[in-house]
Amino acid sequence: MIYVEAPETSGIDVAHLSSPIATLGCYDGHCSHKHAPDWTRIPIGVPFDIRQPCHSIANVFSEIAMWPENTAVLHVLICSQIITSHLAPTQPKLTPMMMEWAYAVSVSPFMQHRMTSVS
């Protein structure tokens, strides 16, 4: 699972400082299996940081939003809160929320300034 927390100083709208929680990969099997990916051995509940520029992680979220692991989600995790599947079927699922977050981050004034000052 992955989620993004942007610092308040990033200039991104406060409503989008935290992304929805998404799935980066699934593995059917036990972590002790010799062909298990290394990430399966990360202890449950142990967070770690991956530092990436906002535009890079927005691109990643746009791409993985369409992965089956994320399109099939029946509940949405946001900011450590769970919205369960017994809500009305009109509630947004994970993929649209991921796309909205990626778009909001990519069009933020901070990102527009960074993109124009780099070129």
Write a structural description:
The chain is mainly alpha-helical. The protein has one domain. The protein has 4 helices and 2 strands; from the N terminus they run ααββαα. A two-stranded antiparallel ribbon has the order 1-2. Helix 1 runs antiparallel to helix 3. It is globular. 16% of the residues are buried.
Gyration radius over CA:
16 Å
Taken together, the total number of domains comes to 1
Q: Low-confidence stretches at least 5 residues in length (pLDDT < 50)?
A: 77-91, 113-119
Largest sheet: 2 strands, antiparallel
Strand content: 5-15%
Supply the helix-strand structural class. Answer: mainly alpha
Tell how many strands the DSSP assignment holds: 2
The largest beta-sheet arranges its strands as 1-2
- Percent helix: 25-40%
Oligomer designation: single chain
Shape: globular
Average pLDDT metric: 76
The helix-strand sequence is: HHEEHH
Tell me the number of helical segments per DSSP (H or I, 4 or more residues long): 4
- N→C terminal distance: 33 Å
Topology of helices and strands:
Layout: H1 54-64, H2 68-71, E1 76-78, E2 81-83, H3 94-106, H4 109-118
Antiparallel strand pairs: 1-2
Using brief descriptors, characterize the structure shown.
two-stranded antiparallel ribbon, 119 residues, disordered C terminus
